[in-house]
Amino acid sequence: MGTAVRKGNRDKSGPPGAWKLEDAKARFSEVVRRAQSEGPQRVTVRGREAVVVISVDELDRLLPRGAGKPAFVPFLEGLGLDGLDLEREVDRGRDIIL
């Protein structure tokens, strides 16, 4: 199946599936459709790759099985911040002359 590319809808300086940000915004439905049917769609900002739009199926394939959002408390505990000093001096404001 060929991939017809309309004029002005993708970044011609990049590989197929590369979109300039302004074009991706204007044709977001097409970007999403192509991500589902053709694979990852790269979005460039000022000529540099910035983000990639991928399908949920592709994301599920890339993520480890059973990977989900960790519970908040275990996540924080796993950051290894035990020795972090969170104390601060009491701030009583400042005197101003009115």
Automatic annotation (TrEMBL):
<dbReference type="Pfam" id="PF02604">
    <property type="entry name" value="PhdYeFM_antitox"/>
</dbReference>
<dbReference type="InterPro" id="IPR036165">
    <property type="entry name" value="YefM-like_sf"/>
</dbReference>
<comment type="function">
    <text>Antitoxin component of a type II toxin-antitoxin (TA) system.</text>
</comment>
<feature type="region of interest" description="Disordered">
    <location>
        <begin position="1"/>
        <end position="20"/>
    </location>
</feature>
<dbReference type="InterPro" id="IPR006442">
    <property type="entry name" value="Antitoxin_Phd/YefM"/>
</dbReference>
<protein>
    <recommendedName>
        <fullName>Antitoxin</fullName>
    </recommendedName>
</protein>
<comment type="similarity">
    <text>Belongs to the phD/YefM antitoxin family.</text>
</comment>
